[in-house]
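Support request, please re-run this one:
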Amino acid sequence: MNALRRAKRAAEKAGVALSEWEGEFLDTVSERVKTHGRAFGDPELGAPGQALSSMQGRKLKEIAAKAKGEELRRRWGRKAPRPTDG
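Re-run finished. Output below.
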């Protein structure tokens, strides 16, 4: 819950405009955590003691990085080719 509030406050403080989807995501996730103790229905999507699923946590990190003006590192995907000696 603190991470959700921090991300929202950071975006407001920095004057970063969150998309409609991002704002709705933060609101609905916090409501689900308050109501159900976690923000996902399927226990296979996240650890039993976690409030957010792994993908919800990832999106929260993306929103927080956007609020801070940082570029988010790509975790999966192609790496840049290595320079060749030549």
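The mean pLDDT is 77. The longest helix spans residues 20-36.
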